[in-house]
Design goal:
By secondary structure, the protein is an alpha+beta fold. Helices cover about 40% and strands about 15% of the residues. Strands 1-2-3 form a 3-stranded mixed β-sheet, sandwiched between helices.
Length: about 100
C-alpha cells in the first residue's frame, strides 16, 4: 500500500492512523551490511542496481518523514517477534498509547 499516493512507493504494511510505514527489506536487494554478498556475474550491473535501491530507500525515508510518517525498516533476517514488538511500540507511541 502506498502511504502517500503522490509518492510512488509501496510499503509492506501501513498503519494509516498512526502514520507508520513498514518496509521489509531483503538482504540481497537492499544491501544488508551484515549479509549482502556481491554478485560474481555481472557484478557492476548488480552493484549499481543495489546502490540504486539503497538510494531510493533513503529518498523514501526522507520523503515520508517530511510528511509526518514514521518509517520502520526491517531486514529479512531479523527475528519476526522482535520486529513486531519494535513496530508495535512505535505504533502505540504515535497513537498516544503506553
Amino acid at each position: 500500500m502506498r502511504p502517500v499516493h503522490e509518492l510512488r512507493r509501496t510499503a509492506d504494511v501501513v498503519f494509516t492512523k498512526a502514520r507508520v510505514a513498514v518496509f521489509v527489506d531483503g538482504c540481497y536487494w537492499h544491501g544488508c551490511p551484515e549479509h549482502h554478498r556481491p554478485a560474481t556475474k555481472r557484478g557492476e550491473f548488480w552493484q549499481e542496481k543495489i546502490a540504486g535501491n539503497r538510494a531510493r530507500d533513503a529518498d523514501t525515508n526522507a520523503s515520508l518523514s517530511a510528511q509526518g510518517w514514521a518509517v520502520v525498516r526491517v531486514w529479512e533476517h531479523e527475528d519476526p517477534e522482535a520486529a513486531a514488538d519494535r513496530i508495535s511500540g512505535i505504533v502505540r507511541s504515535r497513537l498516544g498509547e503506553s
